[in-house]
Amino acid sequence: MLQKLELESFRSHKKSELRFDTGTNVLIGISGSGKSSVLDAICFALYGNTPKIQSRKLKVSDLIMDKPTKEDEAKLKLTFQADGKDYEVTRVLSREKPTYAELRENSTLKATGTTQVTEAVERILKTNFDLFSKIIYSEQNQMDYFLTVPKGDRMSKIDELLKLERFEKARHIAVSFAGKLKFKAKNLQEASEKFNEEELSKDKAALQADLAGLETRTKELSAKKTDLDKTLEILTKLLQDMEAKKREIEKLRAQKQENDGAIRVIESELKELPEGDLEKERERFENARQEFNEKSQKEEARKKEVAGIESELREKRSQLEKKSAAEEFLKGFDSREYELLEAKLKELEIGHVREEHLEKELSTSIRSLNSAGQKCPTCDTPLSDEKRIILLKEKRDALMKTQERLSNLVKEIIAAQKEAQAEKENTRKAEEKRAIVNDIGNVAEKIDTLQKQLNKLEAAKIDLDAIRKTFEEKRQLKELLERKTAKLVNLCKYREALQKVEGQLSGIEFNEEVFEKLKVELEEKRRARFGVEKDLQYSQEIQREKSKALVRLLESIDFLLRNRSEIEQLKYSTETLDKFSEVLSEVQGKLREEFVLTLNEVMNEVWSELYPYEDYSAIRFKIEDNDYTLQLCDLKSNWVNVEGISSGGERAIASFVMRVALSIILAPNLKLLILDEPTHNLDAETIENLTEILRTKMTDLIDQIFIVTHDERLAQAATAYTYELRRESKKKEPTEIHRIETFLSS
Known about the structure:
Blueprint lengths: L1 E9 L2 E7 L3 E7 L5 H13 L3 H4 L18 E10 L2 E10 L5 E6 L2 E5 L1 H12 L3 H8 E2 L6 H4 L5 H9 L2 H29 L3 H76 L5 H54 L4 H36 L13 H56 L2 H17 L4 H44 L4 H99 L5 E9 L2 E8 L4 E3 L6 H19 L5 E5 L7 H13 L7 E6 L12 E5 L9 E5 L6
Parallel strand pairs: 3-13, 3-14, 8-12, 12-13
Antiparallel strand pairs: 1-2, 1-4, 4-5, 5-6, 6-7, 9-10, 10-11, 14-15
Helix pairs in contact: 7-14, 8-13, 8-14, 9-11, 9-12, 9-13, 10-11, 14-15, 15-16
């Protein structure tokens, strides 16, 4: 039983709370007041879905309040009882985030997450969304939903609710699979018919015989090839040995020829070399070399001494030149010149100071005269303007002459300073020249002594050219004799080598005729082996091709045998699937019959309680032309299809009875019925009858009923809570809920 529903920012509900009880709960309000939103809230709270969302007429975000203010979230909380336990399901919808959901059992959290909460609710209520939305919840003006379903579609719709479509799907799959198996068996049969088993057996025997002959031929050729390989190996080894001997003989002959030529050349060269005793010539050469070395050392020492004296002479002569230049400079130097220049410079500087002082005095006098009044600034005597002018002229003339003398004195001082500086430099040079003269002393005597020593050394010069010539002659003679000795040694070596080669040649056994015959025989054997190898390759190739053909033939035979077995298996499987399809159809039909039987029993019980007239005595659900038909039994015991009855009252009651019966059978754990605008197309009498039925006769059949209507007459059907929902949609205001007291007549 549903107990309480809380809505926050859901559709037109800003913040609403509704309580429910057993019996009939009625929600009254004009169109757009938010009545159907309450039913959508109940459905979404339980299953996280609504029929309009399921059919994609709405999105989840459309359930969140958009006006008068646009909200980011909506919240639903539904409290209900089941099997003696209290449950509270909460769902929070968001425009930006996934929906949050939680389920509590007796205040204990049992599940979170949209899918987990929905699955838990389905287990508790034993009713899923499809059953709830098709049977329990009658959408607006859809109470006669099953009568409006076109003929031919009713059975499939009911089968979906009963889960019987699974049998139909399974049967369809079985039939489809059986068809595929039959098609495969047909293809296999057609493929098998392409082969002739008798011809395949003959071909197999022929190929096996050919392969046996080829195997024998291959073995013979392989043996022949092996024999030829061995013979070729022996002949090749013999030929290689003889070729090695031949190469050795040719090599030795070349060496013999080379030695003969070398001996002839050496003998010819020996004739041109001089005769003599090598040891004596070596002794003479050593004596000459020793004499040459001693003389060379003495001459080298003499040359070094000469070089030293010549270097010293150059130095002394340079000193002599410096001394002469210094003496010449000192002859023209007067040391008193510098002293005279110094005195002159001092005198000029004193005159310059005196003139500067005079210049200052004159400048001061001129300034005093310029600023003086009628008295002389010097003697304090009366001073007229004429006298001032005369005095100023005299002073200015004197000042100009003084300044001219100062300028001339400055020039003379500068010239005197330059002359004094130059004379000072000459004085310094004179001191340096005197030092040079004093340091060098009497260098002429030293030069004479050194020249005499040099002349003596020049006289002692040794004639090395004659000694070198004698030494070279001795060296050349020694080298010629050494060359001659070396050639004699080489001559002996070549003669020994020639003798050795001749001995080796005489020791090698080689027959040119046998060698040529062996080459011919080897070539013949190679050609024979090549022919055998070609025959063997051809035989092996034919054998491989025959083997492949035999494999293909055996595969064809195996394919034929496997096809037969598979065709039998497919035939058995097809027959089994056909039987299975028949069983599924029978089970599906049997379940439909049992459902119809149960539904008719419940509908007639309800009909007898709810139908207020005597025009129709019974109601039934009938399987006809592979579809369902709802019929009523008239007073003549004739069964009439409900959709053919013109009276809206009978149609409405029949549809209502069918819904009640379906909810009792398919949702026995819920015992709930929700009707949205059930009075559509009903006349006043029918509405009055329906109101009476809902108020007085439904308590024993359904625990809780919800009526949503704009028709205030249905308020009389309430046995539990009654609410009036108000909303001024033009002002975009939220829904307001007002509870109306329910008054039950006795």
